[in-house]
Amino acid sequence: MTTTEADFGAMSGLELLRAAMTRQDRPPFIGDLLGMEVDELEYGRAVFALRTRPDFANPLGTTHGGICATLLDSVMGCAVHTTLDPGVGYTTLELKINYIRSAPTDGRRLTATGSTIHVGRTTATAEGRVVDEQDRLVAHGTTTCVLFR
């Protein structure tokens, strides 16, 4: 069965994300550019991963912080998205990242987990963590999203 645009408008945030991520004809998103894999989408939680690669390098030769920032913005925003009612939108209002350790560009798998803290009428907050293959913390952050009802 094909999902139509009208169907998407009637879906909760969680239903919409699950349907959109599995569509054969899904439009491209930032995750495609970085090679993100969607590992989990649950109410209030999102887990994405990617493998580092040489073109992610900063001038020092390690993975650029923007890769972790994009992973965190994605999982924290999607965690918020999973809690929204049909027709409610959102966007990132604020993003705060702490970098703990560098990550090599040699194909290491980085996994980001985002979880909601609070979802209100006009704003939502979430937190996230990026870990490496040894479950060592690479970066963590928080976000505030504005909701459009």
Give descriptors for this structure.
alpha+beta, globular, 149 residues
What this model shows, in words?
- The chain has 149 residues and is of the alpha+beta class.
- It has one domain (5-148): Roll (Thiol Ester Dehydrase, Chain A), CATH 3.10.129.
- The protein is 25% helix and 38% strand.
- It is built from four helices and six strands.
- The protein has a six-stranded antiparallel β-sheet, covered by helices on one side.
Describe the SSE topology:
Elements: H1 5-9, H2 13-22, H3 30-34, E1 37-42, E2 45-51, H4 65-81, E3 89-99, E4 109-119, E5 123-131, E6 137-148
Antiparallel strand pairs: 1-2, 2-4, 3-6, 4-5, 5-6
**CATH class, anyone?**
Alpha Beta
- Which second-level CATH architecture applies? Roll
Q: Radius of gyration in whole Å, from Cα?
A: 16 Å
Helix content: 10-25%
Task: Give unreliable regions as ranges.
Answer: none
Strand order of the largest sheet: 1-2-4-5-6-3
The dominant shape is globular
Fourth-tier CATH superfamily name: Hotdog Thioesterase
Order of helices and strands: HHHEEHEEEE
- According to CATH, the fold-level topology is Thiol Ester Dehydrase, Chain A
Mean pLDDT: 94
Number of folding domains? 1
Distance between the termini: 29 Å
The fraction of residues assigned to DSSP E strands is: 35-45%
Structural class: alpha+beta
Kindly state the number of beta strands.
6
How can the largest sheet be summarized? 6 strands, antiparallel
Compute the number of helices.
Answer: 4
Keywords: Hydrolase
Pfam families: 4HBT (PF03061)
InterPro entries: HotDog_dom_sf, PAAI_dom, Thioestr_dom
Protein name: PaaI family thioesterase
